[in-house]
């Protein structure tokens, strides 16, 4: 299957590490003009060193005002990947207000905010895009944790559940603007985030034993699903949560 993003403008959040970084690199490889957003400058420096066509934007997405400032001159974006998130694990009875607020601010509120900021520009140019027959596509990076309770994941599960519903409402309201909105919902991936929660082999086994394919997902397996949902190979797919979980949610 040939996929090309030649001439498309893409914005990837959380592009400094893990799935976001690999997505930014893949989009650039397939011809997109990529803006990479994250909060650690050294990650952006090394990303641009590897991929000089990428435009870096350093901002903490938890800061609404700073995000507005950082994104105000990005211009129209046709492909948006809301990938940045944090995962701090705590038993239910030990969840703190700070953890709750920080997680919802980054995992849900920033998705709403960055999407509003980019779609506002889209609306201005929407007629032009419809005339050219090309709309926009947004992929929110959710998780299997949105649909299945995981021990010590109270807040993370709640943010991803909220993200799945946000995805559906965005699909409903942005569809008429020819902007599709979907999510990918991976199982564990051994990025920095994945390693924090699942490096212990005993604990990892409790999860892999519940995945019919018997293993965690690779970063590229998640990236490929993101690229599919962004591409013109999925032009009638809108409002779905696509598991990338080896069958975990099917059981
Ligand atoms: P990761 O390796 O921790 O990378 C996350 C990236 O997001 C980092 O570059 C991080 O920057 C950035 N980021 C976090 N908070 C930010 C903020 N407030 N402002 C700007 N950038 C911010 O995570 P990952 O595993 O690639 O996860 C990517 C997505 O996949 C997340 O939505 C996650 O929930 C989802 N997911 C992951 C797994 C897994 O097992 N890894 C499974 C299912 C779903 P800093 O490093 O500078 O903080």
Domain count: 1
Residue share in β-strands: 5-15%
Quaternary assembly? single chain
* Morphology call: globular
Distance between the termini: 30 Å
Summarize model confidence as the mean pLDDT: 94
CATH H level: which superfamily? NAD(P)-binding Rossmann-like Domain
Main sheet attributes: strand count, strand direction, barrel closure: 7 strands, parallel
Tell me what the CATH architecture is. Answer: 3-Layer(aba) Sandwich
Gyration radius, to the nearest Å? Answer: 17 Å
- What structural class is derived from the secondary structure elements? alpha/beta
Strand segment tally = 7
CATH class: Alpha Beta
- How many helices in DSSP terms? 8
Bound small molecules, which ones?
Answer: NADP nicotinamide-adenine-dinucleotide phosphate
For the biggest β-sheet, the strand order reads 3-2-1-4-5-6-7
CATH topology: Rossmann fold
Architecture overview:
The chain has helices spanning 18-29, 41-50, 64-71, 97-131, 154-174, 192-198, 201-208, 219-230, and strands at 9-13, 33-38, 55-58, 79-82, 136-141, 179-186, 241-244. The chain is an alpha/beta fold and 251 residues long. It has one domain: NAD(P)-binding Rossmann-like Domain (Rossmann fold, 3-Layer(aba) Sandwich), CATH 3.40.50.720. A seven-stranded parallel β-sheet has the order 3-2-1-4-5-6-7, sandwiched between helices. The two termini are 30 Å apart. NADP nicotinamide-adenine-dinucleotide phosphate binds at residues 14, 16-20, 38-40, 43, 60-62, 83-87, 106, 141, 143, 186, 188-189, 191-194.
């Amino acid at each position: 299957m040939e996929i090309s993003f030649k001439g498309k403008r893409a914005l990837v959040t959380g592009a400094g590490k893990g799935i976001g970084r690999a997505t930014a690199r893949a989009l650039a490889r397939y011809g997109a003009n990529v803006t990479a957003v994250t909060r650690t400058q050294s990650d952006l420096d090394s990303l641009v060193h590897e991929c000089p066509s990428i435009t870096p934007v350093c901002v903490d997405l938890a800061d609404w005002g700073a995000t507005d400032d950082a994104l105000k001159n990005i211009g129209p974006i046709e492909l948006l990947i809301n990938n940045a998130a944090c995962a701090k694990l705590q038993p239910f009875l030990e969840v703190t207000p700070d953890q709750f607020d920080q997680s919802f601010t980054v995992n849900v509120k920033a998705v709403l905010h960055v999407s509003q900021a980019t779609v506002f520009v889209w609306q201005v140019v929407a007629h032009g895009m419809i005339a050219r027959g090309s709309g926009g596509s947004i992929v929110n990076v959710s998780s299997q944790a949105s649909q299945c309770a995981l021990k010590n994941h109270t807040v993370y599960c709640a943010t991803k559940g909220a993200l799945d519903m946000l995805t559906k409402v965005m699909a409903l309201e942005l569809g008429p603007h020819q902007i599709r909105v979907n999510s990918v919902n991976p199982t564990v991936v051994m990025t920095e985030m994945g390693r924090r929660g699942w490096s212990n082999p005993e604990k990892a086994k409790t999860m892999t034993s519940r995945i019919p394919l018997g293993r965690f997902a690779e970063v590229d397996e998640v990236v490929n699903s993101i690229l599919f949902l962004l591409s013109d190979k999925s032009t009638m797919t809108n409002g779905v949560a696509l598991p990338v979980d080896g069958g975990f949610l099917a059981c």
